């Protein structure tokens, strides 16, 4: 086991510094309102299922699948049933077909 020791200084970077001070960086995570994405951000896409996985699957294949499922929800594999029901029963289907971010659900 390797043990590393160091010191983190809490100071603002100088104006001409090329480094970003991570301590002062704020990140806000938002949840995706989508029937195939659960509250923790996990996706339900067939290419990642154990039965469908192939050693020849590339990162490009996975990213393409992610983009396709976000653009065209697969209601037969919905993780969030309430959103899938809303998608089917709503008059605003066009609005729901576009993924959107919802803060702090």
From TrEMBL:
Superkingdom per UniProt: Eukaryota
GO molecular function: ATP binding; ligase activity; transferase activity
Active-site residues from the entry: 44
Keyword field: ATP-binding, Ligase, Nucleotide-binding, Transferase, Ubl conjugation pathway
Presence of the UniProt keyword Ligase in the record: yes
Keyword Nucleotide-binding: yes
UBC core domain: residues covered: 1-105
SUPFAM superfamilies linked to this entry: UBC-like (SSF54495)
Record-linked Pfam families: UQ_con
Family per record: Belongs to the ubiquitin-conjugating enzyme family.
Official protein name in the record: Ubiquitin--protein ligase
């Amino acid at each position: 086991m390797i043990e590393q020791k160091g010191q983190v200084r809490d100071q603002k970077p100088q104006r001409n510094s090329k480094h970003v001070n991570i301590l002062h960086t704020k990140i806000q995570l938002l949840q995706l309102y989508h029937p195939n994405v659960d509250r923790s951000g996990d996706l339900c896409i067939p290419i990642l299922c154990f039965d469908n996985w192939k050693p020849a699957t590339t990162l490009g294949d996975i990213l393409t699948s992610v983009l396709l499922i976000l653009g065209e929800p697969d209601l037969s594999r919905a993780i969030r049933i309430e959103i899938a029901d809303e998608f089917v029963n709503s008059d605003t289907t066009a609005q729901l077909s576009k993924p959107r971010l919802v803060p702090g659900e």
